[in-house]
Write a structure and sequence with these properties.
single chain; alpha/beta; 2-enoyl-CoA Hydratase, Chain A, domain 1; three-stranded parallel β-sheet
Length: 255
């Protein structure tokens, strides 16, 4: 277990299923060190011979992920720091994309900003009805630049544009399922977890070579993301320095 700015990332493997869990007391928000650790654990699980399938989840029963850590965003003082922070989300998404194992993402609650990027980068996302989503970046003076390619790939350009433009509106889990972000939506956490257990067990006993080839097929055309997402991180890193962004973040924290 690794402490990361009061957050944690843990990983354990049982019967071919590696479960990676992240947590943070501020609605499972993501500081830079936690993003770095999460990207590392995903990469390691992808190379781990005992791992046949990965389940990615967060702790608690409320928010799945509230996106970037506001405290850390407020501390960014130059473009290099901004690019480094947002590259953390780029590295998580790219490691999910490159991982030769299927990744099931468990969405047990609200999903905001970078959290939607993680859900979109899943090979299969399973959620509960309470899992509302919102791309809030524009409200804070930036935009969903880094997560954009993953979200647009999963739900299509029109739906992505709608999420990105109306940055203050929550969309319910039914909307997210109809657009393809969630593969399944369940009424209860128990039903969601039962479905995850069934699918992960099935995949753990499936042909690893076949699944690796399927993953290549599913992600074909994203080979430029290693460069693209880091270019997008630079855009966000510049915009977060604006007075608009700093004031918006401060107002939100003051609520």
């Amino acid at each position: 277990m690794t402490e990361t700015n009061q957050g944690q990332v843990t990983s354990e493997t049982h019967a071919g299923v590696t479960t990676i869990e992240f947590s943070h007391p501020q609605s499972n928000s993501m500081p830079g060190k936690q993003l770095e650790k999460l990207a590392h654990e995903i990469h390691f699980a992808g190379t781990h011979a005992e791992t046949k399938v990965i389940v990615l989840k967060s702790a608690g029963d409320k928010a799945f992920c509230s996106g970037a850590s506001f405290d850390e965003l407020l501390q960014i003082s130059n473009e290099a720091e901004g690019e480094k922070f947002f590259s953390g989300f780029a590295n998580v998404i790219n490691n999910m994309r490159r991982c030769p194992k299927f990744i099931i993402v468990r969405v047990q609650g609200k999903c905001v900003g970078g959290g939607i990027g993680i859900a979109a980068a899943a090979d299969y996302a399973i959620a509960v009805t309470a899992a509302e989503i919102k791309l809030s970046e524009l409200a804070f003076g930036i935009g969903p630049f880094v997560v954009g390619p993953a979200v647009e790939r999963k739900i299509g350009t029109a739906a992505f544009n709608a999420l990105a433009i109306d940055a203050s509106m929550w969309r319910n889990s039914d909307w997210a399922k109809k657009k393809g972000l969630f593969a399944e939506v369940h009424e209860t956490v128990e039903n969601m977890d039962e479905s995850i257990k069934r699918l992960s067990n099935t995949l753990a006993h499936s042909n690893p070579a076949a699944m690796a080839e399927m993953k290549k097929m599913f992600w074909k055309g994203t080979e430029n993301w290693d460069t693209l997402l880091h270019e997008r991180a630079l855009i966000s890193g510049k915009l977060i320095l604006s007075s608009f962004s700093k004031e918006a973040l401060q107002k939100f924290k003051a609520k």
